[in-house]
Design goal:
The protein is of the alpha+beta class. The chain is built from 9 helices and 5 strands, in the order H-H-H-H-H-H-H-E-E-H-E-H-E-E.
Length: 229
C-alpha cells in the first residue's frame, strides 16, 4: 500500500453528499433512484448501492413499485433480507401516515387525503381486494376493514354481510373501496351491479353508501362522480 493513500471507499463521500442534499433541498432535489439509495444505505452499510437502486427501479418501474413489491419478488432480484425488511418498513410507515390523515376525521371534508390513503393501501396489490370504510353520523371514519380478497380480477362480495358488519359497528354510512390489479380503474359491469345491490340493502336499514372508489395504478375512480350512485 502506498504511504499516505486514502483507503476510504469511494462511495462513503457519495453517501454523505446525498444525505446532505436531501436534508438541505428535500426529496424533490433527488431522483427516484437516489431516494432508494438513501433507504438502501441502512440495509447495506458497506457497498456502493447506486447500481442496485437503478436496477430495482428498472425492474419494477418506479420507487413506489419497488417499495410495494412482494417480498418474494424482491428476493429474486437481490439476496438480502436486510433490503426486503427495510423496504417493507418504509411501506408500513407510509401507509400508517396516510391512514392517520383520515382516521377519526370527517372524511367528506378530507377527500383528497382519503383517496391518497386508498391508493397507498391498495394500488399495488396483486390480487383484487374489497374494503369498507365505516362512518358515524358525523361522517367520521370509525373503522377501515378489508372484507374480502379474491383473484386478479374478481372479489366475491355479499351485501348482507356488508350491512351486517355496518350494523355491528353502528355505522350510519359506508364507503366501498376495491382495487383493479390490472391498473385500469374503470368499473366493470359486475362492479356496478354489486354496488347497486349494496345500495339497495342499505336503504332498507337507513345506512347510506357515500361512494364506491376503484383504485388503479396512479388513478382512482369515484362511482358518485361518474353518476353511478
Amino acid at each position: 500500500m502506498v504511504e499516505g493513500a486514502d483507503d476510504t471507499p469511494h462511495y462513503a463521500g457519495h453517501r454523505d453528499r446525498l444525505r446532505d442534499r436531501f436534508m438541505e433541498a428535500g426529496a424533490a432535489a433527488l431522483a427516484e433512484y437516489e431516494l432508494l439509495e438513501l433507504i438502501l444505505f441502512r440495509a447495506i452499510p458497506r457497498r456502493d448501492v447506486k447500481p442496485l437502486a437503478k436496477q430495482l427501479i428498472k425492474r419494477f418501474g418506479s420507487l413506489a413499485d419497488v417499495i410495494s413489491a412482494d417480498p418474494d419478488r424482491l428476493r429474486e432480484e437481490i439476496d438480502s433480507e436486510n433490503v426486503v425488511r427495510e423496504l417493507k418498513i418504509i411501506q408500513a410507515a407510509a401507509l400508517y401516515l396516510a391512514q392517520s390523515a383520515v382516521l377519526n376525521k370527517p372524511l367528506l371534508s378530507s377527500w383528497s387525503a382519503l383517496l391518497e390513503y386508498c391508493h397507498s393501501a391498495m394500488a399495488y396489490e396483486k390480487k383484487e381486494a374489497f374494503r369498507i370504510l365505516f362512518l358515524d353520523h358525523k361522517n367520521v371514519l370509525i373503522a377501515d376493514e378489508q372484507q374480502q380478497q379474491g383473484t386478479v380480477d374478481h372479489t366475491p362480495v355479499y351485501p348482507r354481510e356488508v350491512m351486517k358488519r355496518a350494523m355491528n359497528l353502528s355505522a350510519s354510512s359506508i364507503i366501498l373501496v376495491h382495487n383493479h390489479p390490472s391498473g385500469d380503474p374503470t368499473p366493470s359491469r359486475a362492479d356496478i351491479e354489486m354496488t347497486k345491490q349494496i345500495v339497495e340493502a342499505g336503504k332498507q336499514l337507513t345506512i347510506s353508501v357515500h361512494d364506491h372508489i376503484v383504485v388503479g395504478r396512479g388513478k382512482t375512480v369515484s362511482f358518485r362522480q361518474l353518476g353511478l350512485i
